[in-house]
Amino acid sequence: MDIRQLRYFTAIADEGSISRAAVRLGVAQPAISRSVAALEASVGVPLLIRHSRGVRLTPAGESLLGHAETVIGALAEAECDLAALRTAPGGMVSIGMTPALAASLGPRLVGKFQRRHPDVLVRMVEGFGAHLREQLAKGAVHAVLMYNAPKLKEFQTEDLFSADDHLVGPKGAAAVAGDTIPFAAIEGLPLTLSRPDNATRRRFDRVCRQIGMTPRILVETDSPVSMRALVLDQEMFTLLPYSTLQTDVLAGVVDSARVVRPTLPSLLSLTTAPWMPLSDAARHLVEMARRELLAMARERSWLIPGGMDRPDGEGREASLSSL
Question: Among 33, 191, 208, 315, which residue carries the largest CB count within 10 Å?
Fold first, then answer.
């Protein structure tokens, strides 16, 4: 089995026809047929079923297709990375972060970094917990910034600061009219939340079980963009750290109230892979990301709207390490 065979096979699967795949690839049809025959011989099972209108995949073919697409995608990504390194005389650095952080921290971080390293290409990868950890594990990024990162032995995680989650709702909704809302008052509200395997969602579900509350969850999504759209268009509510929603709140697009009794602190962490060697530029990027993120937290009062003091008298201050 080789990459050419996999390319031919995926083209056949896409086109549903060997002849159409040959035209698309600019390869003679007999050559593609021989390649498929050799691939079937190497795996020991039929991959295609031929019929009057073309071909369709066998169950074994369906299984191989997923793996083939992964292999081809990984190779394309490697080629892209190498091409980037060829065109960037100073090399390349990469950091992963949530979309909200990419929009707020990203331009500031890139601007300051490139003033110091003008010849280094910066790649920003957006995503959420599982995707960002996967990118770090395979060496596609040098560090990731994300909320509620699990403490895994293969990674080094530095907690930067904690910010309480807010209930976000439509502008003018009674539930988010005040500065705070008790957790129990969320019951009955139409919610869009992250999936159950998300760390933030697991914490929410745990509190619900502890107080005997049955939440009304209508939509599950890990995308804050989708959550925002559902809040605006369908008048749902969601839970997000204040840093994620501050721009919309200040613009008067949505309203929010900090959840209390109990609070739901989201911990923002910087995660790296100790086994991954870092260039001087990559180390500078990681250090700069830490410094600029903490500076933004101070400047924008991401911890508690309007300042650091807790109005609910719960007996602890919002945590901001390294300040």
Answer: 191
Give the bridge partners for 96, in sequence order.
Answer: 125, 144
One DSSP character per residue, 135-174 reads HHHTTS-SEEEEES----TTSEEEEEEEEEEEEEEETT-G
| Closest C-alpha among 227, 116, 127 to residue 169 | 227
Nearest-Å Rg of the Cα atoms of the chain is 25
Among residues 85, 139, 144, the alpha carbon closest in space to that of 290 is found at 144
For each of the chain's 323 residues, which pLDDT tens digit applies?
888 889 888 888 888 888 888 888 888 989 989 998 999 998 898 998 888 888 888 899 888 888 888 888 777 767 666 665 555 446 889 999 988 788 889 999 999 999 988 888 899 998 877 888 889 988 889 999 988 888 888 899 999 888 889 999 999 999 999 999 999 999 999 999 988 888 788 889 999 999 999 999 999 988 878 888 999 999 999 998 887 778 888 889 999 999 999 999 888 899 999 988 888 889 999 999 999 988 888 887 665 433 333 333 343 333 333 33
Count of all residues that appear for the chain in the document: 323
Instruction: Output DSSP code: residue 323.
Output: -
In angstroms, the Cα distances linking 26 to 8, 19, 37, 97, 145 are 11, 10, 19, 40, 44
Contact 137, 154 (CB under 8 A): yes
- End-to-end distance of the chain based on CA atoms, in angstroms? 55
